[in-house]
Amino acid sequence: MPRKSGAKDPIVATSATGDETDTRERILHAANRLFAERGFDGATLREITEAARANLAAVNYYFRSKDELIRSTLESALKPIVAARLEALKACERAYPDRLPPLESLADALVRPMAELSSGENRDRLLLLLQVRTIAQAATNSVVADHFRPLHERFIDVLQKVLPNLSRAELALRYDCARGATLQILVDLAPAAQLVVSPAERATTIDRHEWLIAGLVQFVSAGLRAPPTVLRQPTTRKKAPGAATKPR
Amino acid sequence: MPRKSGAKDPIVATSATGDETDTRERILHAANRLFAERGFDGATLREITEAARANLAAVNYYFRSKDELIRSTLESALKPIVAARLEALKACERAYPDRLPPLESLADALVRPMAELSSGENRDRLLLLLQVRTIAQAATNSVVADHFRPLHERFIDVLQKVLPNLSRAELALRYDCARGATLQILVDLAPAAQLVVSPAERATTIDRHEWLIAGLVQFVSAGLRAPPTVLRQPTTRKKAPGAATKPR
DNA sequence: TCCCCATTGAAACGTTTGTATGATACAAAT
DNA sequence: ATTTGTATCATACAAACGTTTCAATGGGGA
């Protein structure tokens, strides 16, 4: 059966009707979960379609290939977190119409949406695991970067106003630091924190979720607020404390 | 070649003599690189053995299976970074025999070894990529965690002395934050920093490597030094952290 | 009613995967 | 010279992979 020329392509026909969220959506959902659990290479289409109660060929029907499914999964998974962070940033600016928002509020806007989306009543950590996986995968990393770029620029713009003493380069560096700290805390499967804390001490913590967010915000805020870095001149080639360079 | 009685298993025979570093070592080296580049599932044994100029069966000869190769690769890759950080910590303590080392030195001991091992004349970022991959992979994550645990405990112990006002739980949390920030900065393939900084501004940076380390240390030190987190009671309606505790 | 077409289903495709097998080369010990 | 054990090689194998094909299905306009 020869296909008509681009008339009704099932791959792009979803948003047209609007309620076709059946098989395609189930596949996307299952793929999200399994990609996060076992990685993009580790999760097979057979597992995904089985979990989605769909036929194996459905993947190649709704998406062209596994690569396209990965891309679609990333887009659908990243959209909520970007939107939530952007919304939190806007709300933060709205709360302080005349003056600049405090740094703690900005840090909260950066940290909280990801914490809510990952550990809340929502699916558990899948979004974060997906994100971590894409960091190491050059192919998917560009997709993620493209989605996040506007958000990052918005955040750095606001931070630049709050912290005018920092160069934009250093500010961007610290923004990356903040992202890394957030990701690490929320995704790490074996954090040093959990190993160290005694059960009794953990029991006193009323709400671990809120405690994590508060601690993260505290750390990130202080890190962002640090005075500008002054590079030690290498004129005196004195090794830094604890250098102990190992020759190869 | 002197030979002991009993079964000589080639799998455990390497560390005995010490100079048998030929094919087995080449495979380990190639596996390190390819696992980091394409992931544990993405890198095939045929690619690895070809890159190592070894026969395909050599993997199952020196290691029992691909899983064992992954484990061996992780161990050999993690050992240097753990040793380097531990050595840096010891050197830091040695440099201040009578009083406690400054926080910046401790942060440097945490950050610098990984930066040196990843971006120096050494192989590029492979160790970091490996580490990031293991974060998301539950199976390999335990191996990594086991290797890092003594190091983490040592670091947190020292930090606890320098920052006695923090609970051990919060200290461990901030230590994880510091690890996350370090990992993110050193591994990220598409950092916001690189996208934002103008080429001119980057040109002024004499040594980007040293600049990254200094900025990281500055951020981490300030984050660790932040005052203890006070949990805001959720009785208040809106999340308006107005408690802007001025640092000094 | 019929036809159309988007969707689903089962089965097979060719390729690539990790692993296993047996032959062979080589060097030291017997 | 023969034996012995280590190491490397080409090759084979079953399983699993992503992808394709084609028939069956079913509901909505004509």
**Secondary-structure element sequence of chain A?**
HHHHHHHHHHHH
Instruction: Count helical runs of chain A.
Output: 12
* Rounded average pLDDT of chain A: 81
CATH class of the largest domain in chain A: Mainly Alpha
Quaternary structure classification: homodimer
Strand content of chain A: under 5%
Number of strands of chain A: 0
**CATH fold assignment of the largest domain in chain A:** Tetracycline Repressor, domain 2
Q: What kind of sheet is the major sheet of chain A? A: none
Q: How many domain units of chain A?
A: 2
Task: List the uncertain runs of chain A.
Answer: 1-8, 13-20, 235-248
Distance between the termini of chain A: 63 Å
Do you know the CATH architecture of the largest domain in chain A? Orthogonal Bundle
- Class by SSE composition of chain A: mainly alpha
- Which bin fits the share of residues in helices of chain A? 55-70%
Judging from the principal axes of the Cα atoms, what is the shape of chain A?
elongated
Using a beta-carbon cutoff below 8 angstroms, give the protein chain pair with the largest interface and the number of residues from each chain: A-B, 90 and 99 residues
* Spatial extent as radius of gyration of chain A: 22 Å
Organism (chains A, B): Mesorhizobium qingshengii
Protein name (chains A, B): Transcriptional regulator, TetR family
GO molecular function (chains A, B): DNA-binding transcription factor activity; transcription cis-regulatory region binding
DNA-binding region (chains A, B): 44-63
